[in-house]
């Protein structure tokens, strides 16, 4: 895969992260209903807070990709965030916090992390 295709994939991932984070922020009960999570007020509030961070970090990554930034810290920490998100969502499914559909979210985050780390290795830092 050449650098342009990898960058395009990451741009799409960053945009999806912004959109899904905004959806969590704006409509946490709806999103929790899709992935089989508890819809209590406290859980909705926490889920909305996580959505806010997703939207912000996704926007940061999107901006850095569109501007073709060479700053290695951004893909490095996005990769770490996505890797840990994948692990925590998977753990949440294992514990019965989320339904099996959330495994798709975990898989998306895992692939996103691997691509971010691959991109990091390609920008040479």
Q: What is the general shape?
A: elongated
User: Termini distance?
Assistant: 19 Å
What's the count of strands?
A: 0
User: In percent terms, what proportion of residues is strand?
Assistant: under 5%
Q: What structural class do helix, strand and pairing data support?
A: mainly alpha
Mean pLDDT: 95
Radius of gyration: 15 Å
Helix content: over 70%
Number of helices: 5
Low-confidence stretches: none
Largest sheet features: none
Short description, anyone?
The protein has 125 residues and is mostly helical. The protein contains five helices and no strands. The mean pLDDT is 95.
Explain this structure to me?
The chain has 125 residues and is mostly helical. 81% of the residues lie in helices and 0% in strands. Helix 1 crosses helix 2, helix 1 runs antiparallel to helix 5 (102-122) and helix 4 (73-94) runs antiparallel to helix 5. The longest helix has 26 residues, at 41-66. The model has no long low-confidence stretch (mean pLDDT 95).
Defining traits:
125 residues; 5 helices
Question: What's the layout of helices and strands?
Answer:
Blueprint: H1 3-26, H2 28-35, H3 41-66, H4 73-94, H5 102-122
